[in-house]
Amino acid sequence: MFAFITNSCQVFTGRNTITKFIISQHAKGYRNCLSIHMAAKSRALPFLEAPKKLDGTIPGDAGFDPLYISDNMNLDYLRASEIKHCRVAMLAALGYVAQEFIHLPGDVFSERHALAAIHKVPLEGWIQIILFISLIEIATFRTTFSFDREPGDFGFDPLGLGKSPQLRRRYQESEIRNGRLAMVAIIAFIVQELVTGKSVVEQLETLKLF
Question: Which pLDDT tens digit goes with each residue over 162-171?
């Protein structure tokens, strides 16, 4: 029966027409499959599948999650953790450089190298540092794990920079990008000082561009 219908179609339409129709349908299906496949690739790492939750809607999202951590954990918690580390890293990078120029009175604060200054902190100082950090963590613990607000938003905006939705998005993007750069920077500062024995500013002073 099928052979009869096929032969009849060939008589009225021609063998080439049927062949072209079949090829065009296969090509169309292939293009659709290819477009779906390409759309599922990560924008940051095109050779990997895109993480399911990273669709580009959150600030700073470039689809970079090669371990697919976001697929298995709460995305708001991961965002809050990254923002916290970004903010700490930005303060750390600034303080690492400021240590070489700003000193309080006393021999304890006279060390220029940030890593060497750690060893000059007395026991009482460490107790104060740990106590202060613990109080901050306790005070923000409930807010961090209550996902009824935007991650990283503690309501602290004395200048009102986040009133405009457009500017808010822009500042969120800037915070994430600068924070990620600061995390890389503070690691680089520490590694450079450990390897060379010189502080960041001392290395810049001996840098020869020409």
Answer: 788 888 889 9
